[in-house]
């Protein structure tokens, strides 16, 4: 696993090694039980999935909670690009297993959580199934997704929404800062 090359945002060039390999972009977040450690362990777990490798990971960011109950702790958020031979739904299922292994409980919508993994985009696939929507239907409006995603994939097109770098440049970044700065 590596961060984007030479500290240059967006230096990651994604090429599909074979027709059976897909590139997916994953959002990671946690605001319980050592959030940065949870995100780091989730990146390791993604890298250990069968036929999957992490191509790049963004920096970690401290972000204010969006939605959900008041009084939640700050989140640690990041994004990663992965190469996988898994289908989109199989990757999402594997991500849910990783969340479960990290103690994720889904009892309050947008509530505090040990780990949240979102499949943001998968190749150029558009999917509007209730169980899997691609690109992620709210990614384009969330700074906690766009800022780290722009580090590793500024040219990525979120079909129907635009280029990640443009979306990130236009979004309000209030409440988002590098993880170690507070």
Question: Can you put this structure into words, describing what you see?
Answer:
By secondary structure, the chain is of the alpha+beta class. The protein has 4 helices and 10 strands, in the order E-H-E-E-E-H-E-E-E-H-E-E-H-E. Strand 6 and strand 7 (132-134) form a beta hairpin. Helix 3 (143-152) crosses helix 4 (164-170).
Q: What's a concise summary of this model?
A:
This protein is of the alpha+beta class and 182 residues long.
Helical content class: 10-25%
Mean pLDDT: 86
| Silhouette | globular
Order of helices and strands: EHEEEHEEEHEEHE
Beta percentage is 25-35%
Summarize the biggest pleated sheet.
6 strands, antiparallel
Report low-confidence residues grouped into runs of 5 or more. 1-13
- Per DSSP, the total helix count is 4
Question: How far do the termini sit from each other?
Answer: 26 Å
How many DSSP-defined strands? Answer: 10
Q: What Rg is obtained from the alpha carbons, in whole angstroms?
A: 15 Å
Task: Write out key terms for the chains shown.
182 residues, alpha+beta, six-stranded antiparallel β-sheet, 4 helices, 26% strand
How would you summarize the topology of this molecule?
Elements: E1 22-30, H1 35-48, E2 52-57, E3 61-63, E4 75-84, H2 88-101, E5 116-122, E6 127-129, E7 132-134, H3 143-152, E8 157-158, E9 162-163, H4 164-170, E10 176-178
Antiparallel strand pairs: 1-4, 1-5, 2-4, 3-4, 3-10, 6-7, 8-9
Helix pairs in contact: 3-4
């Amino acid at each position: 696993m590596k961060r984007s090359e030479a500290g240059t945002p967006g230096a990651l060039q994604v090429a599909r090694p074979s027709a059976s390999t897909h590139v997916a972009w994953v959002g990671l977040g946690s605001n319980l039980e050592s959030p940065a450690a949870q995100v780091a362990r989730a990146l390791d777990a993604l890298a250990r999935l069968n036929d999957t490798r992490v191509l790049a990971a963004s920096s970690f960011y401290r972000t204010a909670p969006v939605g959900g109950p008041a009084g939640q702790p700050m989140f640690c958020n990041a994004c990663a690009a992965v190469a996988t031979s898994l289908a989109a739904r199989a990757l999402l299922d594997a991500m849910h297993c990783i969340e479960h292994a990290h103690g994720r409980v889904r009892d309050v919508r947008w509530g505090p959580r040990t780990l949240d993994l979102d499949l943001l985009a998968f190749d150029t696939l558009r999917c509007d199934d209730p169980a899997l929507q691609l690109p992620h239907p709210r990614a384009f409006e969330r700074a906690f997704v766009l800022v780290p995603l722009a580090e590793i994939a500024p040219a990525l097109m979120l079909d129907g929404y635009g280029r990640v770098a443009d979306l990130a440049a236009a979004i309000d970044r209030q409440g988002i800062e590098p993880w170690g700065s507070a």
